[in-house]
Description:
Radius of gyration: 34 Å
Order of helices and strands: HEHHEHEHHHEHHHHHHHEEH
Shape: elongated
Largest sheet: 2 strands, antiparallel
InterPro entries: MLTG-like
Structural class: mainly alpha
Function: Functions as a peptidoglycan terminase that cleaves nascent peptidoglycan strands endolytically to terminate their elongation.
Distance between the termini: 142 Å
GO biological process, one term: peptidoglycan biosynthetic process
Strand content: 5-15%
Number of helices: 15
Number of domains: 4
Family: Belongs to the transglycosylase MltG family.
Keywords: Cell membrane, Cell wall biogenesis/degradation, Lyase, Membrane, Transmembrane, Transmembrane helix
Amino acid sequence: MDKQSKKEIMFERMKEKKKEGKTVRRIVAIIALVVLLIVGIAGFQVYNFVSGALKPVDPDSEKVVEVEVPIGSNLDSIAELLEKNGIVKDARVYKYYVKFNNESEFQAGTYGLLPSMTLDEITQSLKTGKVYREPLFTITVPEGLTLEQIAENVIAKKTDFTAEQFMEKVNDEAYIDELMVKYPTLLTDEIKNENVRYALEGYLYPATYPFYEEDPSLTLIIEQMLNATQSNVVQYEAVLQEMEKTPHWLLTFASLLEEEATSLSDRQTIASVFYNRINDDMPLQTDPTVIYAKDEETDRLFNKDYEFEHPYSTYTNKGLPPGPIASAGIESIQAVLDPADTKYFYFLADSTGKNHFAETYDQHLANRDKFIGQ
């Protein structure tokens, strides 16, 4: 091979090496760019994730979630508990937040926490043993009110909504359907019985409700009351299943006790009267059902009122009415499930509101003559 040929071969090899080097550099540059891009995207995603997890789960939520922190709980278990209950978005982020802020000495106990609370508010609550947030205002629903009374005496007086707006909302068929999906074990097809006056009658739990915004929506107000009813009824789910009864039956029965009773012992004793009458195939004959049926407030009923034909009247119909006639409190609910053991079939209230019970009709007439003067 001559010298010229060797030079040409060497020159070609040098060109190939230069080309390969250029290709390698280009590939390395591309790989580096891709890596930087991936790292940048990952970093951006991590940043977004962490910054999001530091914010409240739901800034607009007014739902109070009961969270029980057992004695001896450590930060890991508390953080996981808060995430499980929807109070924080991510347990790991909350754990690091607490560590970075040198927080400690959390107290065991049962807390009413909200998904709208900040991480600092949650932390202060767990340290002080109380909810570290003051409501802007509260709404109190007394026991024994009907939907119409709640509309007029509570909603119209404590909020900017009118009684008519409230009644329109609780009677909106589409909204009722939405609620039935949201509360499937509480709101069953029974509330749509053609004889039921208002689907949500008796389902808005009587209690004091805190609100943390100036103008809560009707949806928020109504569903906070439904949440309370659900909480107070779900604890007896096993008992109801054993009795082969439904929440609707329970709330209907409890509403009669709420309207008739004047004390805790009365509730249990009146419950026994109603059970005895039902078991003996007798009508319940409780006056509040007649008043509800006639849909008018009155201090006294007359003979013609007891003959008034209506699905809610327990004088003209046996058994419970189609649905609740008022919102019952926990004492009435418990009395239905734990009635007194009596042989009473009758009772009446004197002018002071005290109830007097009797086993026979003759004894009942004697009580009437003695305490009412008829």
